[in-house]
Amino acid sequence: MAIRFKGIEKKYTVYSKPQDRLWEWMTGRQRHRVHVALAGIDFDVKAGETFGLIGENGAGKSTLLKIAAGTIRPTLGQIEREGRVAALLELGAGFHPEESGHDNIRFMAALHGLEGPAMEDFIVRATAFSELSAETLERPVKTYSSGMFMRLAFAAATAIDPDVLIVDEALSVGDLHFQKKSLNRILELRERGATVLFCSHNLYQVRSLCQRAAWIHGGRVQAIGATEDVVTAYEAHERRRYAHLRTEAGEEARQEAPAKPAAVSSSTALAKIVKLTTETADGINPAQVDSFQDLSVEIEVESYVDAPFHVLFAIVRPDKDNVFGTSTQFRVQGKPLHGTGTHRVRVRFPRLPLLSGEYLWSAYVLDDSGIQLLDMAELIQPFTVLNQKHREFGLSWLEHEWVQVE
Ligand SMILES: Nc1ncnc2c1ncn2[C@@H]1O[C@H](COP(=O)(O)OP(=O)(O)OP(=O)(O)O)[C@@H](O)[C@H]1O
């Protein structure tokens, strides 16, 4: 066990106006209401595992992470932790703005109880990881750009080689280069056996990183167990929650889907999806495909740096449910693509087994770990599939046979 939540409950005192607090203190009459953010939280995170926390906004995930990190105390219950804990929560919250970057690193080391050579080692590692110049590190941190501040905060938070790492969506720190570096640092600590408690709204990341997960709903554990089971249950809940929006969203996607990928690359993009081309015997990018027709999909990616990457794409329904997704990472060897310039990958679907319906494509470029998103083009190039040959209905053709039972 690395973290044990025992009967955790957290109540927040909420005042509608700041002056109510003073009024309550002066009169002794209650002017607040109590908000129960967490109740009955009882589970263990095992040593060495990567554990995901998922749930909708306001479910209580951050509160639970803060309790795990020891930055806030539960109203009821106990938290047990084993080993050195590093939390990537409110990065840099403990920094002194007037002090230099260097002094702040020193404070952080002292906070972890480090002295002498251990402190020097911490400072060297944090400084190197931050990639900030000696001149920058001598300046007060209040003069830093937000990117520089986050670099320093991440470097200082992970330089202790923690046994337990608590991460709240911290994978999006700084520019793309630093994001990758931060992610690699988290993966490296995990490889070395650190326990990771990881909270994210990115279910793809949770699926890729975590062995087990808990879905927090209304401050309680709604489901806990193997990641795939928990994430699937949460996705089903989300689908039901948005059920009333489905038709509208589908209509919108059909009307607004651009003919070309709506890439979200920034100017610092490492790679960009340039084109997605489909082809059947009827031609290029057909608006209509027959069920059981051979279909091929080609994705063109422009890579601006000599770094490895993977291409992932999915056939998606207008309500955003994935029908089928695949990635170059899932190939037998799973080798990433590599090198600057234009890359084209093609996937062939012999006898496309989709039945009648509206479909779109989503394509993604991911780094070599398959976790960091470099570019995406979602819900593009709508097409219709028509099942003219068979009478079976549904989404997809399933191999089957009818047997008369005597
Ligand atoms: N300091 C606070 N005072 C009062 N209420 C709070 C405080 N912090 C959080 N809450 C409330 O507690 C509930 C849980 O909040 P929390 O931030 O833990 O949710 P979350 O699951 O992390 O949400 P998100 O995904 O949006 O980050 C919310 O209703 C929130 O408004």
UniProtKB/TrEMBL annotation:
One of its GO terms (cellular component) is membrane. GO terms for molecular function: ABC-type transporter activity; ATP binding; ATP hydrolysis activity. SMART domains: AAA. The keyword RNA-binding does not apply. Residues 3-243 form the ABC transporter domain. Keywords: ATP-binding, Cell membrane, Membrane, Nucleotide-binding, Transport. It holds the Pfam family ABC_tran. Coiled coil: none annotated. Gene3D superfamilies: abc- transporter (atp binding component) like domain (2.70.50.60), P-loop containing nucleotide triphosphate hydrolases (3.40.50.300). The keyword Ribonucleoprotein does not apply. This is ABC transporter ATP-binding protein.
